[in-house]
Structures are given as structure tokens and as C-alpha cells.
Write a structure and sequence with these properties.
three-stranded antiparallel sheet; Beta-lactamase; alpha+beta; five-stranded antiparallel sheet
Amino acid sequence: MKRLLLPFNICVLFLAFTLSSCSVAQTTIEAPETKVSRELLENLIEQNRQYTQEGEVADYIPELGKADPNDMAIAVVTGGGKIIEAGDTEKTFTIQSISKLIGLMLAVEDRGEKEVFRRMGYYGTNKPFNHYANLETDGKPLNPMMNGGAILTTSMIKGKGEEPYKRILDRLRYITDNPSIQIDSSVYHSEKSTGDRNRGIFYLLKSNGLIESAEGDESSLNNYFRQCSIAVSAKDLAKIGYYFAHQGTRYDGDDRYRNPEITELILSQMLIAGMYDFSGEYARTVGLPSKSGVGGGITVSVPHQMGIGTYSPALDEQGNSLAGYHMILQLVKELGIGLFR
């Protein structure tokens, strides 16, 4: 009789433990994305609206100075590809430095990571996005997120003339599933006519043997100006964030360009250098791979979960959207997300 009771008791205990574990899992584990709603996003906008008056719209590129500092938008693409949005999400603005993610991706696809990073570093920085002194002291850019590294990566995308820019545009249209995305020509001409600092960086790169081009040929620099002048929306940025968060799978499940190795590289660069000289503090407070642009946009990747996009053109001293940062910070805290949470 004892030999029969022992297995029975064990089975009863195992069953009770299993049911208890399932019950605990069902009551305590809730996917962060289930908490995202339009009401939540609208509240984020209203609770952080004061920051639009504390920042400054970029005006070193004259066309950017025409943006309305009162504009605010936030969009989230959840794990199931659902888009939740609030604010001025239909308003477009130029992507600026967020385009560096696409440029780096294409350069690595074409040349391989080893060749790309033979010409630049993996380093973070405490320097502004347009810093260039290291080109003389170290001979190469610190990372691909600063202007020097981004101008170099664009020059490494295969193709003649405007073809590298067109490949960036096509990939952006694919990632966002938005064929209407196009260049803002007025911003492009404004960037080109006032881009002497970037032009100087281009020629320093060339003098160091990092860019190969004929004398007087600035086509790869012009492609960089063009890629920064592509107009997008906060929804587009959320889709970009989702794409890199899901190893190169689009929000609708299309995975023709899926590449975990490249997306891991890009996410790491977003984390250590995506917010320029604010990146260290941002990693401490937000703790998610992100990339900003002086047009007022920020894209955020929550690995394996969601993408977030914000827009507010009033910038802080480092060139990041001030209200955008605070919306993201509050959202991260409310959802309990972040690499270090």
C-alpha cells in the first residue's frame, strides 16, 4: 500500500505546484505593450508640453528654423504590429541624423562590418555630433553616429552618383511601408548651401585616405545632405524603431532583409552614441537604443517588443528633442521597460 501512495502523493504535489505556477504567471506577467493606449499617449503629450517652450528649434540650417515649436507627436508600434498614436502624427519633418541608421546598415551589407569599422571606431563620445578634431588626432571618426562617421558610411554604400541616396530612400520606404516618403528639396538645398562644417569634415576624411573620390567630386557628401533631408512622420520613426527591435523584420511581418547580426550592431551604436554627448545620461535614465535628429525626431527600439517614435522640434543643448526625451522617459517608467529594468 505504501508503494502506491508515494507516487500518488508526488503526482498531487507536482500538479498543485504546476497549477499554482501557472496561476502566478497569469496574474503577475503582463506584456508592457498591453498598457499602451491612445489615452496614455495623449496624456504624455499634455504632461510634457511645457518642454516645447524650454528648447530651441534648430536654425543653423535655415529651413529647419521654420518648424513650429508647439508641434508634438508620439507613436508606438506594438509587438503585433499595431500602431497607436497621438498628437501631430501626420506632420512630416526631416529625418536628419536618424538616417545614419539606414546608411550604416547598407554600408555593412555592402562592405561587411570589418571593412566599415576598419575606417572608424565603435566608441561612445562626450563630444557634439559635428565634432571633428579626432580626425586629425586619431585619423578616423569615433563612431558612425557622429557626422564624420556618417558621411564616411554613406560614401561606402555602393553605387554611382545619387544611387546610394536612392538606396537609402528605398530602404526607408520599405521599412515604413510608406512609398510616399520623399526628400524635402528646400531643406536639402538649405543644408547644402550652409554645410561648410560638414564639407570640411568630408575633406578631412578624404585627406586621411578614408574617402576615395575625384578632385572636386562631392557626390557622396551631397548624398549625405540628401539622406538627412528625407521627410518622415512620428509613425515612420516608430516603424523604424520596431524594425531594428525585431532583427530587421518589418512591423507587418515582412522579413526579407532580416539580419540579426547587423541589427545587433546598430542597436549597440544607438545605445552608446545615438543621442550624441547626452548618450551616457540617456542610457542611465531611459536605457534603450535610440537615435535622435535635429529635425526634432527620436526613434526608440525596445528589443523584441516595440518601436517608439516622437516628434517635437524644440531641442536641448545637445541637439535632441527636449519634449520628445521627456515623453519617452515617462513612457519607459510607466511601462517598466528598458534594458536595465
